[in-house]
Write a structure and sequence with these properties.
The protein is an alpha+beta fold and 157 residues long. It has a single domain (19-141), classed as 60s Ribosomal Protein L30, Chain: A (2-Layer Sandwich). The protein has 4 helices and 6 strands. Strands 1-2-3-6-4-5 form a 6-stranded mixed sheet. It is globular, with a radius of gyration of 18 Å.
Length: 157
């Protein structure tokens, strides 16, 4: 028997579960660790930290190539969730060497410069695999109207 105090929380979880879509990229880590590449709940999509791994397990040594690979995986996850890169509103970039951020930033600007999501870059002591120079996670919101607007402050350049 469920205690009355827990019923509202359980009702909320049940409602969320019915509107929850899990997206897999086929990574062997998903089942082992117990995570999804992305989760869509309503209009929001959360893409997990994405590493620059090729299907054969290899990793290119160039930070820019790694960033592009991360975004390829992210874009596929968004597509599978009914979205795309244009719906990204938040990006978190983790690099192990600040000197690599310029190469990552060029890829970010190429792919996301027109939509300008809120972006944070963090220099981490290490990532899970020492070959990884970058790991990227994003959040997206699928627009109700399909319109995106860019508003600038009068004093911004």
């Amino acid at each position: 028997m469920t205690p009355p105090a827990l019923r509202p929380a359980l009702d909320t979880l049940a409602a969320m579960s019915s509107d929850r879509q899990l997206v897999s990229s086929g990574s062997p880590f998903e089942a082992r660790v117990g995570f999804s590449r992305a989760v869509r709940v309503g209009e929001r999509i959360f893409v997990a930290g994405t590493a620059p791994i090729w299907p054969d397990g290899s990793v290119d040594g160039d930070a820019g190539v790694q960033a592009r690979r991360c975004f390829e995986i992210i874009e596929q996850a968004l597509t599978d969730a009914g979205s795309g890169l244009a719906d990204i509103v938040r990006v978190r970039v983790y690099v192990v060497d600040a000197a690599d951020f310029d190469a990552v930033a060029l890829v970010h600007a190429e792919l996301l410069g027109a939509i300008r999501p809120a972006t944070t870059a963090v220099v981490a002591a290490a990532l899970l695999d020492p070959r990884w120079k970058v790991e990227i996670e994003v959040e997206a919101v699928v627009p109700r109207t399909g319109r995106t607007s860019v508003r600038r402050r009068a004093d911004s350049a």
